[in-house]
Amino acid sequence: MFAYHFATHQLPKARQLEAWQAWYDTIFDVTPRQASNDDFIATNSTWTIPGLTLSLVVSPANTVNRTKSAIRHNSVDHWVITLSKRSVSDVATRGLTFEVAPNTPFILSFSDEIGIRRRREDNRLQLILARDNFQAIAPVIDAARGMALTSPTARMLADYIRLLEHNVPALDDDAASRLANAVQAMLLACLTPNADSRSAASDQIRLTLMERVRRAVRTNLRSPSLGPAKLCREAGTSRSQLYRLLESEGGVAHYIQRRRLSESFSMLSDAANDLPIGEIAEMLCFSDASSFTRAFRREFGISPSDVRAATHAGLPPAPPPSLPLGSEICTFSDCLRRY
Predict the structure, then answer these.
(1) Are 81 and 140 in contact (CB under 8 A)?
(2) What gap in Å lies between CA 41 and CA 121, rounded to an integer?
(3) Cα–Cα distances in Å, from 336 out to 80, 142, 156?
(4) Helical H runs in the chain?
């Protein structure tokens, strides 16, 4: 895997925009929204394996255009799937104009003329797919390009792209070599959902759903209403699917409790945190300090007061073990083994 990072912040202010425009030369013409004499602090991190590139871009508001002239000078015809996290995108391509809300994916092709105006500073992910490597699903991708993708399976695709952001930079060469096939299976499942395509992408779907659940639990860790109903609503999954996801974790309640205990361990290991143990227990929705202490000792083999005492003595105990995503798949790399 080839990784590269480009940034303008270390350049003189007068050269930042020029450098960013040169970075995208022959692909896009870049025009800033603000006056050209303002700062233009932007970064682009890319991770490339044969067939695809994951690109993370942070930039001020701007407009990019891929013109006929740019297409003549650089005839690359890759597809690009974009997921903007902050900005609305006003897109023009193939005689169509449409608006894309943040966190909504859309697909374009570099073989087409393109115009994209971003209304504010943005943090966006782009998955760039080489047409030759994804020829088997070319009709599916082409049918979905040039529109905002808003279906439930498109939201699954958005979550999967975010999952790639967190996992691709750490992939070893063996896992990276399998990524293109895994992405192809997930695209097919999200763009033409049916039993066969979902079965082929089952590991990718499972890991994406698990990430949704993990995020929902983390967000609501201190909410007394956190339970199956709330998780199903926030993770966009059915109750039976949620139970299957967390079966290897001992069930929904056990998974939530382990997350709360892990959070309490972190709080007690923070020397700057002087909240009483009973208050920490209440904050994390335990019925009382005694039941919290018993659960904590069962989980970590040490009492909350011992963790705090060790922290104040400058001898913080070992961190709690990380929580797996399930017995069959523990890492993103694991879910690539079948491809």
Answers:
(1) no
(2) 10
(3) 22, 25, 18
(4) 13-23, 68-73, 138-144, 152-167, 173-191, 195-200, 202-219, 228-235, 239-245, 252-268, 277-283, 289-300, 304-312
Four-way CATH pick for 2-200: 2.60.120.10, 2.40.10.480, 3.40.50.300, 1.10.10.10? 2.60.120.10
- Three-class DSSP category at 14: helix
H or E element at residue 127: strand 122-129
pTM above 0.70, yes or no: yes
What are the residues facing 164 on neighbouring strands? none
Alpha carbon 24 to its chain's center: 24
pLDDT per position as a tens digit, 29-49: 999 987 766 789 999 999 999
- pLDDT, tens digit (0-9, with 9 covering 90-100), for 276-328: 999 999 999 999 999 999 999 999 999 999 999 998 888 766 666 555 444 44
Run of H or E residues at 47: strand 43-49
CA distance 98 to 91: 5
Contacts of 242 (CB under 8 A, 6+ apart): 213, 228, 231, 232, 235, 252
Q: How far apart are CA 123 and CA 101, in angstroms?
A: 13
The end-to-end CA distance of the chain, in Å, is: 17
The domain segmentation of the chain, as residue ranges, is: 2-200, 202-339
Q: Which two tokens stand for residue 75?
A: 């005839």
Ordered DSSP codes for 209-224: HHHHHHHHHHHTTT-T
- Closest alpha carbon to 126 in 150, 112, 107: 107
